[in-house]
Amino acid sequence: MIVNHVKEIMDQQGKSIRGVARETGLAINTVSGLYHDTSKRVDMETLDRFCKHLKVSTGELLEYIEDKETPPE
User: Fold this and answer.
1) What is the rounded distance in angstroms from the CA atom of residue 37 to the CA atom of residue 30?
2) pTM score
3) CA 63 to the chain's CA centroid
4) Alpha helices in 13-72 (DSSP H)
5) Which tens digits make up the pLDDT trace of 8-26?
Protein backbone atom coordinates (compact mmCIF):
# COMPACT_ATOMS: atom_id res chain seq x y z
CA MET A 1 0.00 0.00 0.00
CA ILE A 2 1.26 3.48 -0.83
CA VAL A 3 0.69 6.12 1.85
CA ASN A 4 0.51 9.71 0.61
CA HIS A 5 2.04 12.34 2.95
CA VAL A 6 1.57 15.37 0.67
CA LYS A 7 -1.23 16.91 2.77
CA GLU A 8 0.75 16.54 6.01
CA ILE A 9 3.88 18.09 4.50
CA MET A 10 2.03 20.96 2.86
CA ASP A 11 0.09 21.68 6.06
CA GLN A 12 3.30 21.63 8.15
CA GLN A 13 4.90 24.08 5.74
CA GLY A 14 1.82 26.30 5.58
CA LYS A 15 1.42 25.74 1.84
CA SER A 16 -1.93 26.03 0.07
CA ILE A 17 -3.06 24.07 -2.96
CA ARG A 18 -3.41 27.25 -4.99
CA GLY A 19 -0.01 28.54 -3.88
CA VAL A 20 1.82 25.30 -4.69
CA ALA A 21 0.11 25.16 -8.09
CA ARG A 22 1.13 28.74 -8.86
CA GLU A 23 4.71 28.35 -7.59
CA THR A 24 5.39 25.00 -9.33
CA GLY A 25 3.50 25.57 -12.56
CA LEU A 26 1.45 22.42 -11.93
CA ALA A 27 -2.26 22.37 -12.65
CA ILE A 28 -4.40 23.08 -9.60
CA ASN A 29 -6.24 19.78 -10.21
CA THR A 30 -2.92 17.92 -10.06
CA VAL A 31 -1.93 19.51 -6.76
CA SER A 32 -5.43 19.07 -5.36
CA GLY A 33 -5.50 15.40 -6.34
CA LEU A 34 -2.25 14.70 -4.51
CA TYR A 35 -3.26 16.84 -1.52
CA HIS A 36 -6.61 15.05 -1.15
CA ASP A 37 -5.10 11.65 -2.06
CA THR A 38 -7.48 11.10 -4.96
CA SER A 39 -4.85 10.77 -7.72
CA LYS A 40 -4.64 7.39 -9.40
CA ARG A 41 -1.28 8.08 -11.08
CA VAL A 42 1.56 10.52 -10.55
CA ASP A 43 3.88 11.71 -13.30
CA MET A 44 7.65 11.72 -12.59
CA GLU A 45 7.89 15.42 -13.47
CA THR A 46 5.10 16.16 -10.98
CA LEU A 47 6.98 14.31 -8.23
CA ASP A 48 10.15 16.19 -9.16
CA ARG A 49 8.42 19.57 -8.88
CA PHE A 50 6.80 18.65 -5.55
CA CYS A 51 10.09 17.43 -4.11
CA LYS A 52 12.00 20.54 -5.22
CA HIS A 53 9.31 22.92 -4.01
CA LEU A 54 8.69 21.24 -0.64
CA LYS A 55 12.38 20.31 -0.18
CA VAL A 56 11.63 16.64 0.54
CA SER A 57 12.47 13.28 -1.01
CA THR A 58 10.01 11.07 -2.85
CA GLY A 59 10.16 8.70 0.13
CA GLU A 60 8.88 11.49 2.34
CA LEU A 61 6.01 12.28 -0.04
CA LEU A 62 4.98 8.70 -0.72
CA GLU A 63 5.68 5.76 1.56
CA TYR A 64 5.34 2.07 0.77
CA ILE A 65 3.89 -0.03 3.57
CA GLU A 66 3.54 -3.74 2.97
CA ASP A 67 -0.06 -4.94 3.06
CA LYS A 68 -0.86 -7.46 5.73
CA GLU A 69 -2.09 -10.59 4.07
CA THR A 70 -5.45 -11.83 5.17
CA PRO A 71 -5.35 -15.49 6.17
CA PRO A 72 -7.29 -17.87 3.93
CA GLU A 73 -10.69 -18.86 5.22
Assistant:
1) 10
2) 0.86
3) 10
4) 17-24, 28-35, 44-54, 58-61
5) 999 999 999 999 999 999 9
